[in-house]
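User: Could you check the structure of this?
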Amino acid sequence: MTQFKDSALDSASVQENILIENAAQALDERRDAGLEGLVGGLDSVIIAAEIDQLVPAVYELLRYTGLACTEAFFDADSQSYVLSVPGSASVIVRSQDSAQNPFAGANKGRLTGPLPNTRLESFVFTTPDIQEYVTIQKERGI
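Assistant: Sure, the predicted structure tokens are below.
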């Protein structure tokens, strides 16, 4: 191996150890807060796309994955497509009118270029008791 590769591997190993330590701490904090058992499996992933890139993004996901379009929602300010396959988390690809987006200013950055509204937006998990989950998170200031 070259010196660069050795250095990169050492750096990755250090970062991996930091991640493992932080993950353990986060799990302890969640358990201590009473969140253990309140968060289930991944239900869906939400991807935001620019309005003019929404349909091409959906077509690309349909073409290269086993997902199928199972639902679509449209209103005056947004469009959403739900892509899913039985036994797996759904992928929701959506766009909204940037004038209606309260985070529009924050979305523009050095790396966003001409696509400030395109991003992995959220992970959605199941929960058996959303009210309890919200109460605990509010008490934690989250």
